[in-house]
Amino acid sequence: MSMRWDEEGTSAHPSMNGNFKMTIDRVTEGCRLMVKMGNSEDVREAEVLSIRKTPHGYKLYVHYIECNRRLDEWVDERALRLDTLKAATKNVRKGAVAPREMVTPIAETQLETSVGALVQDLPQKKMPTIQPPPARRPKLDEDEAPASPTPFLAHQVQPSTSVPRTSGSMSMVGHSEDALTRIRNIEMVELGRFRMVPWYFSPYPVELTRLPAIYLCEFCLKFLKSATCLRRHLEKCRIKHPPGNEIYRNDNLSFFEVDGRRNKFYAQNLCLLAKLFLDHKTLYYDTDPFLFYVMAEKDDRGFHIVGYFSKEKESADEYNVACILVLPPYQKKGYGRLLIEFSYELSKREGKTGSPEKPLSDLGLLSYRSFWSATIIEKLIEYKTTWQGNGQERPMLSVVDLSTMTSIRKEDVISTLQQLNLYKYYHGQYVIVITDEIKHVYEKMQRKIKVRIDPRRLQWTPRDWGKRKI
Ligand SMILES: CC(=O)SCCNC(=O)CCNC(=O)[C@H](O)C(C)(C)COP(=O)(O)OP(=O)(O)OC[C@H]1O[C@@H](n2cnc3c(N)ncnc32)[C@H](O)[C@@H]1OP(=O)(O)O
Fold first, then answer.
1. Interface TM-score (ipTM) > 0.95
2. Ligand 1 geometric centre to CA of 362 (Å)
3. Where are the domains of the chain?
4. Is the CB of 172 under 6 A from ligand 1?
5. Keywords, A to Z (predicted)?
6. Helices (DSSP H) in 352-435: which residue ranges?
7. CATH architecture for segment(s) 364-386+395-457
8. For 83-104, what is each residue's pLDDT tens digit?
């Protein structure tokens, strides 16, 4: 449900009539109401996830219904359409959200903190105190830790309910409904020459969640609390590329294979960073069973991380990608497609078919659909145009053939053909139909794809992890 703020008219805002004070008191975590979105004139139905009292009134963290969580935001109480309030239907977990009266008002100076044009006017977040979790948590260096030690991660991200897998770079389970992990906790990340506004929660040490920005070494991904600490770190840090073997280089683009067991520090830091932009994954600290394929761009200062995908050393479900990410400054430029293409090149070398771990995010689905379509259409067109059968009839091309040629799992081939409307039931069997229209789609796609993976440049031999110690 969405409407324009203008159409509704600010005069209808309940703050204009006398019962505003009374109504705001009825707003609780879990309730729903119409809210004016921060960066537009749209008004959408939203769920209130958290409420803070500030010297200027209330701030509310809201999730817009049927929208991706990366649009969740802190809004001013004036953005609320209080006359549309619907009481909370589900029980808010005890202890997950601080009752309003327990929240300390935020100092005015803190509210005005801003770092660069990208920073939103967010209050410093004060999380409710939760029992500190058991072992294995990322740590700030001793000399970099804040003077007063605070409980570490305010939340153990590993879900307590039963899960199919309890180790891994990230699990597909645990699209957390916990109020705490539904709230973005890091305001800004500085990585190399970029500043990025995170999309989602990531379990960085709680000390860092109170800062206007956190600073990451772009080569080893160590997180630091200030630009000064980063400067000091950079004087010592000798690494100029991701750890592990460089297994591919074409012009200035490289891929490094990072073993999650041998390079635990890097792998964990990579997962923490990635979680800021991955919503539907839960972070674990056991990176041993994973390999991380990090794509980096080279210049005279070193290899700068662009994105990565992780892959289980041994996947019972034959997944060839666990998590995939392109850092926001590099998104929508074709790098996601390159990562996906690379993952299938690895599968081809392994002589296997593969598929990404489910569920896919909205952007993941778009990217995979686009890659699968382009790859399958390419094979169909190649097949149609290159057949030299010396007058013999062309043999039928099957779904299994397409799957073998591309390493795209059979089910994904079928769903792509269906989506492209190329899979038809004809005379009692399914046949693949290549239309003229699809040739135009193919030409358009070819024009769009600027860079591709060159398989000849891949220096990599698959390993049998079953025989090795993971
Ligand atoms: C298995 C899993 O891990 S699923 C999780 C996937 N990862 C995430 O969601 C993390 C956050 N998102 C990302 O990191 C990136 O958006 C990725 C990796 C999904 C895609 O990377 P990008 O470099 O942006 O993708 P790329 O530029 O190659 O585009 C690939 C296709 O997706 C489409 N696409 C990508 N982003 C968008 C967007 N924001 N809006 C619309 N279409 C988009 C592109 O148009 C393109 O399709 P086309 O060639 O038909 O035009």
1. yes
2. 8
3. 2-102, 127-334, 364-386+395-457
4. no
5. Acetylation, Acyltransferase, Metal-binding, Nucleus, Transcription, Transcription regulation, Transferase, Zinc, Zinc-finger
6. 362-386, 399-406, 410-419
7. Orthogonal Bundle (1.10)
8. 999 988 765 544 333 333 333 2
